[in-house]
Amino acid sequence: MATWRKPAVSVLLSVYNGERYLPAAIESILAQTFADFELIAIDDGSTDSSATILSGYAAADPRVRVLSHQERWGLTRSLNQGLSEAEGELVARQDADDLSLPTRLARQVACVAASQQPLLVATGSEKIDAGGQVTSRHPLTAPSVLLRWQLLFNNQFCHSSVLFSRKAVAELGGYDETTAYAQDFELWSRLTRLGGLVAIPDVLVQWRQHPHNITAHHQETQEQVVNRVVARSVREVVGNSISDSEAATLRLAVRRKQLDVTNDLLAVAVLLNRFCLRICDRWALQPHERKLIQLECGQTLQHIASTLARSRRNEALRVLRMSVATAPPLWSRRTTYSCAARVLLG
């Protein structure tokens, strides 16, 4: 008689009325070249044929386990239920309308084995429309330490592209059930402050955008959640009070987006600079990793200074001085004089 053993990976899939795309999503997992997994599929009170579809796959493949709700729980609570049932040491996410390419799990598991136990492994992704046509590609080309830094401000990953440590997430309490939207970013912001991540640059997941998915209907609410999460992260690391609106400005600055000069950009710059230095110390980075983050921060400070130069030159010069101190490699004498001249001359 065969001896049962735990799977290496638990794949979590929650569905609510997803009959149109659900079979393709499940097939993309069952077709993985890495076969040592269980698929925990959660029917979150669907009123269409999703439950029947799940039952059919569970009957045909013992790796598929189905959990069912009579009433809708919501994605966050459903994922936590899946986490509590998971047997694998590693957990992968799969949305019911997305697709995983065949080598996704194999590549991610290999990354875990080859690295120093990263808490999270993400892959590049591409957006597809309702009909499956590719509309844009998003490879993860930045170094992992920079992605870890950027993930403190903005979500860099498609939820379906992530594999993480079950134990680490369980110790954090799982997904935050007070967060109905952007629950993935909220969790990653806590998880990546504890340990490193690995990014596979290649596209291994297709993220479907269509009129009925969460992103299409709740973009504004998701942005509000992300602002609150960023404000919380800054407060916990720096100790300073920061409003959600300041967090929103900080996020725009990090992405080099247009800034409103009527906001207190100097205060945002001071917070960013202090946050950068504290994070570099907390993460115990290698010298080259620290340099990458400081260069990134210095460039963001330059962007803030350029905005301030239009009307608040003294503040712009203060921010430039921060950039020089934080990221000296950015600044040759010629560059420093050139930037200062632009500020002084408006």
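[next item in queue]
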Amino acid sequence: MHALQTFKPDTHAVDVTVALGQHGLGLVLGKEEAGSRWVVKGFRDMPDGQPNPASAGGIEVGDTLQKLDGVTLGSYKDGMEMFKKQSGSVVITVLRQDEITI
């Protein structure tokens, strides 16, 4: 009997539309070891049991944020400034790895 193995063979860009909430996106981000890209590590609980905007919009743990409304995100600080200027819905382009278990 062979053990199951999980591979991440393909990374691809995904556009996710997120409705910004009153308390922001609700993302927990961490810096990727190699480079200055920011990776989704989790989601914050929203007040009063509201759904988390990022999770509800389709962002996943492990996604790497790339663009906001078609504009490449620079540094973390610049990216946060871009998000603060937004209202309503935004399109966030993320890099996502597919997993295959064999």
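[queue empty]
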